[in-house]
């Protein structure tokens, strides 16, 4: 099924959401809008975020859970709408988030993996005891800043 036909069906089936073309696939909870490119699989993935009520996350690891849940829901939707979502597509997408999480957790002093605090969301290195913060870095370059 091509993207235009799929969007037409989804608009009718999910009237509480808006669908708009964009340069990057994403779900905007504030606007209740699914922004999509030319990928039927990513469109269904973003719709899954919307259906599941995903809004935000606090700790970085929570994002992995949201993404996994959205891909599971997207697979259900794919069966319903005749779109194929392969294991490779899902795993590649989840690998991107795993890589993002790993990069954020690497200590800027000794390069060991740190843990994220539940209180201030900074990271702490168990090896050298350094603490650092990170920027969002999902759409820009990762920056880790040591806390003195």
SSE diagram, text form:
Blueprint: H1 3-13, E1 18-21, E2 26-28, E3 33-36, H2 40-51, H3 60-81, H4 87-105, E4 115-116, E5 123-124, E6 131-134, E7 144-147
Helix pairs in contact: 2-3, 3-4
Question: Would you mind describing this structure in some detail?
Answer:
By secondary structure, this protein is α+β, with helices and mostly antiparallel strands. Helix content is 43%, strand content 16%. The strands form 2 sheets. It has a 4-stranded antiparallel sheet with strand order 4-5-6-7, with no helix packed on it. Strands 1-3-2 form a 3-stranded mixed sheet. Strand 5 and strand 6 form a beta hairpin. Helix 2 crosses helix 3 and helix 3 packs antiparallel against helix 4. 20% of the residues are buried. The mean pLDDT is 94.
List keywords for this structure.
4 helices; elongated; three-stranded mixed β-sheet; four-stranded antiparallel β-sheet; 148 residues
In short:
This protein has helices at 3-13, 40-51, 60-81, 87-105, and strands at residues 18-21, 26-28, 33-36, 115-116, 123-124, 131-134, 144-147. The chain is of the alpha+beta class. The model has no long low-confidence stretch (mean pLDDT 94).
3D shape: elongated
- Round the mean pLDDT to the nearest integer and report it: 94
End-to-end C-alpha gap: 54 Å
Low-confidence stretches: none
Total count of helical runs of at least 4 residues: 4
**In percent terms, what proportion of residues is strand?**
15-25%
